[in-house]
Automatic annotation (TrEMBL):
Keyword Acyltransferase tagged: no
Pfam families referenced in this protein's UniProt entry, alphabetically: FAD_binding_3
InterPro entries per the UniProt record, alphabetical: FAD-bd, FAD/NAD-bd_sf, Ubi_Hdrlase_CS, UbiH/COQ6, UbiH/COQ6_monooxygenase
Top-level lineage group: Bacteria
Keyword tags: FAD, Flavoprotein, Monooxygenase, Oxidoreductase
Residue ranges occupied by any FAD-binding domain in the UniProt entry: 128-333
Name of the protein this chain belongs to: 2-octaprenyl-3-methyl-6-methoxy-1,4-benzoquinol hydroxylase
Biochemical pathway: Cofactor biosynthesis; ubiquinone biosynthesis
GO molecular function, one term: monooxygenase activity
Record lineage: Bacteria, Pseudomonadati, Pseudomonadota, Betaproteobacteria, Burkholderiales
Cofactors (names): FAD
Organism: Aquabacterium soli
């Protein structure tokens, strides 16, 4: 194939690559999207539900994806977090003066709608990325959105320091016997963390997306169990942590087959160089306990698109691959991703300790934080990334 010339080549097949290709094409850049063959067609069902924050929703609104995706989304009005010895922390949208704390979206629907939009985007050319072969394009900027296992990142010489937690994130869809009332629930059970995200599918008003991070061996065992045994084990875990919460949730039934992903914390360095840049999980990976991985990736997209747009207006002599521009993006995104990785990692470590004093302190700390509205408001502001 003859080499074609583009402003930006986006390499990747996930939500971050798709969102970036759309955002840049919306600004009039000529974009090549190099993705795995067939990956834009509807794929195998992804059982995950994602919690998306205000900034991620704003990005999807600008990409004109949100009106359709909203039909596959449920708002979170309240969040209830429980410790492992009476500690409790709750947030509500009305106390924080926001209409919702987050939206829970269907992972498959998000990718599908982004893929549909790309098919009609005026300046995006989709090309097949074939492993081991050079891309048949020339572009001023190569934006690498290939996820945590990116080969291109490695070829560009960026390091990726990665620490495995030895835990898997187990995801499933659940039907509940009682309405969820827009309440998300999370239990820190040391060492596992269990979260129920209110959703509307399969049962409107009474479904949840489960995210349960637990030691790899136990995750493997749960995946091998028949549905009835899984359901009993899940209910027992919730009841053991929080009998009142278990009663509010009601009986949970599995819908579909659970799946699990290995969990790690990782950070690439550097994130950019002459003519290339990293975004999304290719640049950073965080534990899903705060539901922030994709939110960070969509914030990367937003920031890079803004840097390139501003540069075109104010410094039109610069090419999109100009290292100075890419460093502006890297500087803007480095701190927020480091902070989120530090926060999730710190919480995990705190709740992994089983000495009595530490347990007492962390639960007391949760109670104190719960009564301190300004700090709570600040925390919610960080999570919403407004
Ligand atoms: C259990 C679980 C729950 C989660 N919940 C949340 C949540 O509630 N909220 C949230 O914000 N985040 C959540 N996350 C994190 C979120 O899933 C990731 O951060 C997000 O999917 C990263 O998107 P990405 O596009 O950067 O990478 P990926 O989704 O990994 O996509 C990259 C894609 O590019 C492909 N690829 C690789 N190499 C190439 C190549 N050379 N050419 C073309 N394509 C290539 C890969 O195969 C892959 O399909 C969760 C994660 C897990 C595991």
């Amino acid at each position: 194939m003859k080499s074609a010339v583009f402003d930006v080549c986006v390499s990747g097949s996930g939500a971050v690559a798709r969102a970036l290709a759309l955002a840049l094409s919306g600004q009039g850049w000529r974009v090549a999207l190099a993705c795995e063959p067939g990956s834009l067609a509807p794929r195998e069902h992804d059982i995950r539900t994602y919690a998306l924050n205000a900034r991620a929703i704003a990005v999807l609104e600008r990409l004109r994806i949100w009106p359709q995706l909203k039909q596959f989304a449920s708002p979170v009005h309240e969040m209830c977090v429980k410790g492992d010895k009476g500690g409790e922390l709750s947030f509500s949208a009305w106390q924080q003066c926001v209409s919702e704390l987050a939206w829970i979206v269907d992972a498959g629907a998000l990718e599908r709608l982004l893929g549909d939009a790309i098919r009609y985007a005026p300046h995006v050319t989709q090309i097949d990325a074939v492993e081991g072969e050079a891309l048949p394009v020339q572009a001023a900027l190569l934006a690498v959105c290939e996820g945590k296992h990116s080969r291109t990142r490695e070829a560009l010489g960026a390091s990726f320091s990665r620490r495995e937690y030895g835990h898997w994130g187990l995801a499933a869809r659940l039907k509940a016997s009682r309405p969820h009332a827009g309440v998300a629930r999370q239990w820190f059970r040391s060492p596992d963390v269990l979260a129920l995200l209110p959703f509307h599918d399969p049962e409107p008003g009474a479904s949840y997306g489960l995210v349960w991070s637990l030691p790899q061996e136990r995750a493997r065992q749960w995946l091998a169990e028949p549905a009835e045994v899984f359901e009993v084990g899940l209910m027992e875990a919730i009841r053991e942590s929080d009998p009142a919460g278990a009663a509010q949730v009601g009986q949970l039934r599995l819908h579909g087959t659970p799946a699990a992903w290995p969990l790690a914390v990782a950070q690439a360095s550097p994130w950019s160089g002459p003519g290339w840049v990293l975004l999304g999980d290719a640049a950073h990976q965080v534990h899903p306990l705060a539901g922030q991985g994709l939110n960070l990736g969509l914030a990367d997209v937003d920031t890079l698109a803004a840097v390139l747009r501003e540069a075109r207006e104010r410094e039109p002599w610069r090419s999109p691959g100009d290292e100075r521009l890419l460093r502006r993006y890297e500087r803007a995104r480095w701190m927020p991703t480091r902070a989120m990785a530090g926060l999730t990692d710190g919480l995990l470590h705190l709740f992994a300790q089983d000495q009595g004093v530490v347990r007492e302190l962390r639960n007391t700390g949760m109670g104190l934080l719960n009564q301190w509205s300004p700090l709570k408001r600040w925390l919610v502001g960080q999570a919403l990334d407004r």
